Amino acid sequence: MKRYKVFRREDAKKKLFSKLSPVPVTELPAGERTDLLVELSQTATSQIVHVPVVVARGTKAGPVLGISAAIHGNELNGVRIIHSLLNGVELDKLSGALLCVPVVNVPGFNAGARRFIDGVDLNHAFPGKKEGKPSEQYARAFLNMFLPACDYLIDIHTASQGNINSMYIRADLMSDVVRHLAQLMNPDIILHIKGGDGTIRHAARKRKIPAITVEAGNPSMFQGRMVFDGELGIRNIMTDLDMYPG
To answer: For position 110, what pLDDT does the model report?
Structure first.
């Protein structure tokens, strides 16, 4: 795994990035997958919290599709959807890039907990605050690292603990582009929810980045059917965006 703090290019030149710098997708090697560890925050005892980021960059020009998962630490299906998608994509056929974060809420994921370590629901903490609670600082750092590089966003979730979900989408259906993205996922249900409640989807909408929230099944487990349907839906979107042959 490459450390994001030291970015190595083919000429071996080193360049430093702060945790608030956007991932330099277009500077990474074309036709390759690059695994990064982003130094996003520190714990109370000054231990660095690294967030795994994977950039799969194609050989041809195209949009950057951002895919995030596990903003809640107990949401596992999205992690597997991203892994399965990345394992199946042939980069010589890809136009543009996939910017993937399999686990956003690393402290919650490591603790096996839904919420952030300060007890806050991280998906209601965006866009975050520089001098806010730990969750708000973390959300701000993640947003500034991840979102500026995205042309589109798919944020993957599951039900909360004790609940059961079908495959459904939350989206602002007043946007033609967003509505089309939602339909391409082929979900059981599409809910029109404009946003405004601190979600990363709303933060993307404020930046005019078309975004949908995918609710894929149940928490704290891997569900093969949800993983299959989720990957297929994302491939539909990639094909529609002329990123990948369908």
So the answer is: 94
> pTM here?
0.91
Is the model's pLDDT at 119 over the cut of 80? yes
Range of the domain at 173: 2-240
What's the CATH code of the domain at 231?
3.40.630.10
* Strand residues in 13-157 grouped as ranges (E): 14-16, 32-42, 48-57, 60-69, 95-101, 152-157
Residue 201, in any domain of the structure: yes
Residue 91 counted as domain residue: yes
Give pLDDT, residue 1: 53
CA distance 171 to 211: 7
Share the mean pLDDT of the chain: 90
Measured distance CA(19)–CA(4) in Å, rounded: 9
